[in-house]
Amino acid sequence: MFSTQLEEKEIIGHTCIYKSEDKIKFLTIRRKGKGLIDAVAKIKDEEWIDIHIDGKTRKHKDIKVYENKITMRKYDGELRQLIITQHGRQDPTFMITNDFKMPTADVVKKYARRWLVEQEIAEQVDFFHINNPSSSIVIKVDFDLTISLLAHNLYKVFSNKLAGFENCRVGTINRNFIENGADITIEKQQICVELRKKTHLPLLMGTSWFQGPSKIKWLNNMEIYFKGATKS
Question: Per the structure, how many domains does the chain have?
Answer without folding.
Answer: 3
